[in-house]
């Protein structure tokens, strides 16, 4: 736990004021502006939860993809990865701590989106069902961190994956129901969507902002957690491979 | 300098500088990664927004969003000039460029030409390839004018982007943020997602000065068969030239300031 | 008309967060380089060499004073100056790695106003001359450091400049490349070009320069021929020793050929000698006195300054 917290605090310091974090702080309100404008113009104030939830999830995903994805790569470039591996602390715990810090920062974008809806469009959204909402945010951040553990080692094992890093945004938003409920996607896409934790998060977050009480809260939270756990297992397996390679070759410089 | 020389000299530098743009593009993408990576991603973005029309439940909205966001893709890419302009500083050529007799702006005009070209192809693929799936159908007679207007959008947005790039010349660390924030603001106010009339007067006035607002008006006129497309297109040309002049003036200003403060990059 | 004429040149930089504190990179520099001369500008890192080159190449404005190239002011007539100068910086930066050597040169040739057949001819001629012709079509990314450096020089020559500014051109070069480079500078001189070359390598300065100007902390210390400077510098050697008895110290001070005996901040004794035979005597004395903490050093450039200033009693600045 101490190692986790060390990683958490370290990354907060690194990420605070870094251009990537700043980027999210700037883009999340602008996305809200765009989505809210579409909803308001169509005279559909009931879509405001969509306009607030999707920038939040997009920010979380972007942060996971770019900051967390570069985390191990950065250590490698600065030549500190080998040193990190040599210390007795478990690298995986440290990495998870750092990635959790990143996703926590990402949650700030919800506050931004909420403020934009209120200040610009005078839609002060009430969180009708705070408990499911907060629980869902926390669980989502955790699952996001767990998923991000895949990217870090993946971009090292497959350098070519980095060139499509930028590609992993919108196709993914589309598939995971970030903006559009999965139920509205073509039927043949839906099974794939249900495998992505964000689709469960998005639906539950939107439901908690709406009037009717969300149903099956526990089961849906469990789905997010379970999918996060699977991602985490994959991530750890990949990280393990990276570490094995470092130990065997003494370096990662040729990967 | 004679009149011909005053045109051919910049054209030559732009051409040689564009070789750099092409080389960057080749380094970044192969045909495969461009088509399945970049184009796929951009088409997903257009679909993403067009689907919001589905959520709203209006076929008109869906078509409106599809056209707006399809054109938007070439804008997003053209605005990457803000990012790539700072690459000169990173490779250490800025000092050398500012010590050479030719003006900086000519170099920068050629330096990032890969974006509007690639952006035009993306937009056309989205309009003509993705459009029909969302109820945006084209008649044969519309294809040429729409293609021309997309080229115009990419070109004039590039000029506008050059101006922003010149303003952000010394803000190396914030280049991605500035590029993203600029295109998102354009996405909001230029008639991409909602008609400009939705916004307060002062926003509308600002939006009129951005070429995208004009070209999009023209494209919607052609696609819907409503209103004249020529007037907004001419406005777009004028605005594009205006922004280009402003950009080269701004580059000069920034170079002068850089000489005073010593921020024209470190060559050594 | 001189090739380069610098008068009372000053350049301040703002430092600190708000840029409110000022630091002086150049203070009151006077320098004249005649046409066809190869001038070395020697000094340690941070001496102000690069700042001077930047002002001459019009990419940095002076705070006060004037810098002229071929009679044209670098600040007020920058456009003319740019047409007459070529600049080369050391290191890997400043080339377009994704273009090939020929594309790089053609781009720069266009920047210097060449076009058509003369442009192609000039580029091919330079590629040939710098031994890059058979790699001209290869991406610069794949070049070795020495080849990149040659391409840099070709780039500097592409505008057929009358004045060449070479800022640390041999940084990171291997000895063979550095030797080739020196012969190239010789060719520049033979062609009647004026060359200002900055370096912190005394041997390089001696090998290629007609005159050497020493500069430190933004001030010109002296200008002289390399041989005049060489007469003074190489003779001096230094012995550093710890725990030297007082008696021995006095003996050393009295020894003929010992230039100075000083206590270092660490408490060790620093003995400067006029030549190696004296150094031998000093070492013998120290060993006989039972001193085991001993080392000898050749003077570095900084020592050369100290000696030159001390020996000649020259006015600094």
TrEMBL record, chain A:
Membrane topology label: Multi-pass membrane protein
Residue span, ABC-2 type transporter transmembrane domain: 21-208
Pfam families: ABC2_membrane
Bilayer-crossing regions: 21-39, 51-72, 84-111, 131-158, 170-189, 217-239
InterPro entries (alphabetical): ABC2_TM, Nod_factor_ABC_transporter
Domain of life: Bacteria
Swiss-Prot/TrEMBL keywords: Membrane, Transmembrane, Transmembrane helix
Chief location: membrane
Locations listed in the record: Membrane
UniProt protein name: ABC transporter permease
Lineage: Bacteria, Bacillati, Actinomycetota, Actinomycetes, Kitasatosporales
């Amino acid at each position: 736990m101490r190692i986790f917290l060390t990683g958490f605090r370290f990354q907060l310091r690194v990420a605070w004021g870094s251009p990537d974090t700043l980027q999210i702080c700037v883009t999340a309100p602008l996305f809200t502006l765009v989505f809210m404008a579409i909803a308001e113009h169509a005279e559909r104030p009931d879509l405001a939860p969509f306009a607030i939830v999707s920038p939040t999830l997009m920010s979380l995903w972007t942060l996971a993809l770019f900051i967390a994805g570069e985390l191990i790569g950065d250590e490698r470039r600065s030549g500190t990865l080998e040193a990190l591996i040599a210390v007795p602390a478990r690298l995986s715990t440290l990495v998870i701590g750092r990635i959790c810090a990143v996703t926590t920062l990402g949650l700030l974008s919800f506050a931004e989106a909420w403020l934009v809806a209120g200040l610009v469009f005078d839609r002060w959204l009430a969180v009708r069902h705070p408990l499911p909402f907060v629980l869902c945010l926390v669980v989502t951040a955790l699952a996001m961190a767990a998923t991000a553990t895949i990217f870090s080692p993946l971009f090292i094992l497959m350098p070519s994956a980095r060139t499509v890093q930028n590609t992993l945004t919108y196709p993914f938003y589309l598939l995971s129901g970030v903006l559009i409920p999965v139920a509205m996607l073509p039927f043949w896409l839906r099974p794939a969507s249900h495998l992505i934790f964000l689709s469960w998060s998005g639906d539950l977050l939107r439901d908690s902002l709406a009037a009717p009480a969300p149903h099956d809260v526990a089961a849906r939270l469990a789905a997010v957690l379970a999918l996060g756990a699977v991602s985490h297992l994959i991530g750890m397996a990949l990280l393990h491979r990276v570490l094995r390679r470092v130990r065997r070759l003494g370096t990662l410089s040729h990967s | 300098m004679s009149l011909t020389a005053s045109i051919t000299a910049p054209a030559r530098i732009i051409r040689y500088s564009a070789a750099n743009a092409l080389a960057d593009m080749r380094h970044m993408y192969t045909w495969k990664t461009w088509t399945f990576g970049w184009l796929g991603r951009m088409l997903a973005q257009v679909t993403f927004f067009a689907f919001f029309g589905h959520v709203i439940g209006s076929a008109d909205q869906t078509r409106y969003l599809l056209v707006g966001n399809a054109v938007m893709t070439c804008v997003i890419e053209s605005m990457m000039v803000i990012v790539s302009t700072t690459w000169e500083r990173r490779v250490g050529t800025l000092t050398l460029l500012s010590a050479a007799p030719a003006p900086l702006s000519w170099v920068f005009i050629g330096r990032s030409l890969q974006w509007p070209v690639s952006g035009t192809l993306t937009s056309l693929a989205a309009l003509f390839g993705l459009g029909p799936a969302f109820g945006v159908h084209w008649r044969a007679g519309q294809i040429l004018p729409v293609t021309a207007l997309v080229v115009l959008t990419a070109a004039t947005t590039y000029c506008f982007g050059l101006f922003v790039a010149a303003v952000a010349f010394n803000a190396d660390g914030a280049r991605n943020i500035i590029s993203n924030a600029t295109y998102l603001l354009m996405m909001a106010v230029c008639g991409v997602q909602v008609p400009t009339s939705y916004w307060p007067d002062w926003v509308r006035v600002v939006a009129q000065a951005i070429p995208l607002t004009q070209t999009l008006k023209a494209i919607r006129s052609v696609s819907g068969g409503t209103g004249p497309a020529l007037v907004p297109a001419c406005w777009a040309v004028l605005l594009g030239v205006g922004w280009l002049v402003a950009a080269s003036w701004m580059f000069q200003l920034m170079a002068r300031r850089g000489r005073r403060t010593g921020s024209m990059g470190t060559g050594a | 008309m001189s090739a380069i004429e610098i008068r009372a040149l000053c350049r301040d930089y703002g430092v600190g967060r708000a840029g409110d504190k000022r630091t002086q990179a150049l203070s009151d520099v006077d320098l004249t380089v005649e046409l066809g001369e190869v001038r070395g500008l020697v000094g340690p890192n941070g001496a102000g060499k690069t700042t001077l080159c930047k002002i001459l190449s019009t990419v940095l404005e002076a705070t006060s004073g004037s810098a002229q190239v071929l009679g044209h002011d670098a600040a007020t007539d920058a456009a003319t100056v740019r047409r007459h100068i070529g600049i080369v910086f050391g290191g890997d930066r400043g080339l377009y790695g994704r273009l090939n050597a020929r594309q790089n040169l053609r781009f720069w040739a266009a920047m210097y106003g060449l076009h058509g057949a003369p442009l192609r001819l000039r580029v091919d001629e330079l590629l040939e001359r710098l031994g890059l012709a058979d790699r001209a079509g290869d991406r610069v990314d794949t070049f070795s450091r020495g080849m990149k450096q040659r391409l840099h020089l070709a780039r500097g020559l592409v505008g057929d400049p009358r004045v060449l500014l070479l800022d640390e051109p041999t940084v990171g070069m291997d000895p063979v490349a550095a030797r080739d480079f020196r012969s190239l500078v010789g060719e520049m001189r033979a062609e009647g070009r004026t060359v200002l070359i900055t370096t912190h390598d005394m041997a390089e300065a001696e090998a290629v320069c007609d005159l050497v100007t020493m500069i430190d902390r933004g001030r010109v210390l002296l200008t002289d021929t390399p041989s005049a400077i060489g007469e003074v510098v190489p003779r001096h050697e230094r012995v550093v020793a710890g725990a030297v008895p007082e008696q021995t110290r006095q003996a050393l001070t009295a020894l003929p050929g010992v230039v100075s005996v000083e206590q270092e901040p660490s408490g060790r004794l620093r003995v400067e000698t006029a030549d190696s035979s004296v150094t031998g005597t000093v070492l013998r004395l120290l060993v006989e006195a039972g001193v085991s903490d001993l080392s000898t050093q050749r003077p570095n450039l900084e020592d050369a300054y100290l000696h030159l200033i001390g020996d000649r009693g020259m006015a600094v600045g």
